[in-house]
Amino acid sequence: VLERLNNYVAKKFGTPLAGHFKLSKEMCPRIEQERIEMSKVPYSLAVCSLMYVKVCTRPDIAHAVRAVSRFMSDP
């Protein structure tokens, strides 16, 4: 997965999603420049790859994958 994403998301964490971490629509890009920058990030590929990993080997990441997949249309 990391090779396909060119190590875009290769950060080590102890838990899949910390309880205090909240995602919201306010975190999405607001101006055109931010949208252009985010279009370069393979966000949907990362989320879809994580869904595959979740189903096949890592059910412990289900909550984290659900949380980030809510923003696939506007990362």
UniProtKB/TrEMBL annotation:
Origin: domain of life: Eukaryota
Protein name: Uncharacterized protein
Biological source species: Taxus chinensis
